[in-house]
Amino acid sequence: MSFDHPEQRVVSLKETASGKTEIPRSKRWMMQSRAENRSYQIMVAAPAEAPPPSGYPVIYLLDANSVFGTMVEAVRLQGGRPEKTGVVPAVVVGIGYQTDGPFSPDRYYDLTPMPATEYLQAPDGTALPAQGGAAAFLQFIEEELKPRIEREFKIDSSRQTIFGHSLGGLFVLHVLFTKPHAFQCYVAGSPSIHWNRQHLLLEEQQFVSRLEQEPLRIKVLLGVGELEKGHVSRNSDHARELSERLSAHSARGLEVVFKEFEDENHVSVLPVLISRALRFALRPEK
User: Fold this and answer.
1) 136-162 burial string, b = 16+ CB within 10 Å, else e?
2) Which of 2, 43, 73, 85 has fewest C-beta within 10 Å?
């Protein structure tokens, strides 16, 4: 896709005619999923650098309303000096919702493989939104979103990353365990493993059985904030234990890293996790 048409590009981070600021070389549009007619706001930013012969690496970012700008600016700053930073330029594809807030209640449905079995209410006591739509959401990403991105940008299909945090981290693990070939790098920040832990354990067991028959080349980064350790969900412990179990299969093509970020909590961990994820996912090829 060309950014040369004035309706398809943003020339600088400045106030537009509407009074809003925009991110350079970015655009957004709405998409409706064919299977369930759900609405998604897609946000995409492309590097200023020309694509390499193999195409750009790509990062698919969940809950994009919350961290799209953070991710794009980190890629732009670090990708400009890969010899110094260890990060090459990449296309960032954010999947979000039509809201001005950082999160939408719709995420509960899209990011969960099945409804929670233990956590049935929000912290304020209200009922949780509908859940259990992860399979349809993954179908949308694979069959509708990815083909459009690959038509409009030169993408290296061997360097695809998915990044999610909290429920997004749970979705990342669900994709890893059920459709590992969908991406080559998986970043799960503070994953909500507690949401339906027994179901995720079953998916993990099936994934490990598959590894015994079909070795893969996959990178997995699990990141949590140090201050999350005391939470009743025990997700920090669950993520560490998961990394230890998966690391046992390094001979079958898994590169697994667990990182606990000092003095960070469930939300503040995001910027440092993004920076670490870029060096993990976007290393210059040797």
Assistant:
1) ebbbbbeebbbeebeeebebbeebbbb
2) 2
